[in-house]
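Last lecture ended with a question: if I hand you only a sequence, what can you say about the shape of the protein? Today we answer it with a concrete record. The protein is NAD(P)/FAD-dependent oxidoreductase. Below, first the input exactly as provided, then the predicted structure, then a couple of comments.
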Amino acid sequence: MPSMRDVVVVGAGPNGLTAAVELARRGMSVELFEAKETVGGGARTEELTLPGFLHDPCAAAHPMGVGSPAFRAMPLERYGLEWLHPELPLAHPFDDGSAAVLARSVGETAAYLGPRDAATYRRLMAPFAGTWDTLSADFLKVPWDGLPRDPVTLARLGLTGARPVSWVTRRFEDDKARALFAGLAAHVVAPGSTPMTGAIALVFALAAHEVGWPLARGGSQAISDALAAYLRDLGGVVHTGVEVKRLDELPPARAYVFNTSPTALARIAGLGGRAYEGFRYGAAAFKIDYALDGPVPWTSATARRAGSVHIGPSSREIGAALHAAAVDGRAPDVPFLVTTQPTLVDPGRAPEGKHVFWAYGHVPNGWDGDLTEAIERQLERFAPGFRDLVLARAVAGPAELARRNANYVGGDFSCGAFSGLQTVFRPRPAFNPYGTAHPAVFLCSSAAWPGPGVHGMSGHNAAKAVWRRLRAAAR
Ligand SMILES: Cc1cc2nc3c(=O)[nH]c(=O)nc-3n(C[C@H](O)[C@H](O)[C@H](O)COP(=O)(O)OP(=O)(O)OC[C@H]3O[C@@H](n4cnc5c(N)ncnc54)[C@H](O)[C@@H]3O)c2cc1C
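The predicted structure:
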């Protein structure tokens, strides 16, 4: 008879690793199974193009990682994690050569918005200054699980941010500020008319001022490797290269925690097709990783100093691109682009003088076309001569993203649409969103609240739910 573990975790993304660490830290025996040969999920680093070019196939910029209450409570620096802060967290250039930015200070950010909107930006951010520690803990936990630490600030965020970003930004005179916010909200891949997108934009802006938008030295793999090393030190066992297909393949355990999509969880655990029948996947990404012969030749000098650069010339164009992919079910004519340039702060990730760079736009779930031309047209628009620098590119549309990671169903890297009730009730309305119909089976992926990003907070919250269930069972 094989011995009984306390917990088996399926999937070694940031949430699976966080859940495993937190349960091991409470003295539980934990065994983790990951389908791919390396841990990390959406926080990986690979030579996707040429030898010596270290690309992040998914996440690269980590406002939510450096600001994560779960990660901050772990000694990850001891396991090699080092955050590297670019001079500017984010630049958002425009056709006239100017740019909006997210700088580390509210004052510098406001100054870039120009005299008509600077005071408005300062007023918008003022109530949240210095509140990151409590505010992040409050909005990343399940809203109805206990009292917030700072109810007043959380209520302020809710009152302003529950509205669509397109409403929140009506207070700005100039479209540059509106485009900056529309670009921030676009990280949840929803049109700016979607409720709660105001909060998303506010949180990303606040993070720039309070904790920064750093990259991990060596690439995002460093985050996952640090989590896995810490887990092993706590006695956890990690298996890679094992795709779990059925619950009964796993060793006996008191609890099973799935860092998978809800669809995969229902199939593997035999929960039945109706377990998550209301759950919806969202629009996909179309991503290109580049090996470059030099830095991106942005027209805007400001963009050359930023870790992340958003390409969306106006709030209207950004809105149209998101609407096309997420609502109309067609590829945008002019995509909104999220880009990162890691070698600005971490030159060791490419041979001397060379650079890694990625860009993605949004396309419908499961789309099988090629967005490369449209993406590069936009890059040339803001960085003339970009194409001449391309040494190699690794192109990943929805099918390739899903092949790299089973959680990206149809290329939806958020593992669930940010729409309707799912903006708050992820993966479904329930007091404990991590529990399932099977008392020993739990979900801990970004399909569950608080959703996408490398922050481990779905894993943290799920670990709490597992702990409570096991403690109650032990009584
Ligand atoms: C192009 C792109 C850019 C992004 N940029 C950013 C960014 O800059 N910053 C940011 O914070 N976030 C970013 N994200 C989002 C972020 O990567 C995800 O939200 C995050 O990784 C989700 O974490 P997770 O632990 O829930 O799942 P994942 O990271 O998806 O990990 C799930 C893991 O489970 C494994 N798995 C699944 N099924 C099985 C099975 N049956 N058996 C065994 N193992 C299984 C998978 O192989 C995978 O390793 C980006 C994502 C993409 C694709």
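Comments.
1. The chain has a mean pLDDT of 96.
2. The longest strand covers residues 284-292.
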